[in-house]
Specification:
Elements (H helix, E strand, L loop, with lengths): L1 H21 L2 E8 L9 E4 L5 E8 L5 H4 L4 E4 L3 H11 L15 E2 L8 E7 L9 E4 L10 E6 L1
Parallel strand pairs: 1-3, 2-8
Antiparallel strand pairs: 3-6, 4-5, 4-7, 7-8
Bound molecules: copper (II) ion (CU).
The site of copper (II) ion (CU) has 6 residues, from loops.
């Protein structure tokens, strides 16, 4: 009996060990300023990352209603439509259409001096896929965008 119990404990520990080993959170940082610019044109996540933890900082001073920034991730082919629908969604909804399934991940809108973090699984991404991050605040996505690479 004792042997069986010990074996069960060992396999439990092994299973827990595997879970930890398989879970890899990769951290990214980007900042936006009062001149409507992100400080990075590209973000990359390695294929073995299971979660992405992205922190968006607003390095400016203007309030969110005037120069708010968020961080939105979609397929590159969805950027224009998601940004367009985001304008109509309004500030209270972080300029993201409610229930928009084209949005892979997004942060809330921040103003000068603020920061926010969003965590999302990479299971929604395909290695080598064409993804773009952008700010969906009205008028910003034409300039505030960049390539997001996974894999
Ligand atoms: Cu913006």
């Amino acid at each position: 009996m004792k042997v069986i119990r010990t074996l069960a404990l060992i396999s439990l520990l092994a299973a827990a060990g595997n879970t930890f080993a398989a879970d890899k959170v990769c951290k990214l940082e980007i900042s936006g300023n009062d001149a409507m610019q992100f400080d990075k044109k590209e973000l990359a996540v390695a294929a073995d990352c299971t979660q992405v933890e992205l922190t968006l900082k607003h390095s400016g001073k203007l309030p969110a209603q005037a120069m708010g920034h968020n961080w939105v991730l979609t397929k590159t082919s969805d950027v224009a439509a998601v940004a367009s629908d985001g304008i109509g969604a309004g500030f209270a909804n972080d300029h993201i259409k409610k229930g928009d399934t084209r949005v892979i991940a997004h942060s809330k809108i921040v103003g000068g001096g603020q920061s926010t973090t969003v965590t999302f699984p990479t299971s929604a991404l395909t290695a080598g896929g064409a993804y773009t991050f952008f700010c969906s605040f009205p008028g910003h996505s034409a300039i505030m965008k960049g390539a997001f690479k996974f894999g």
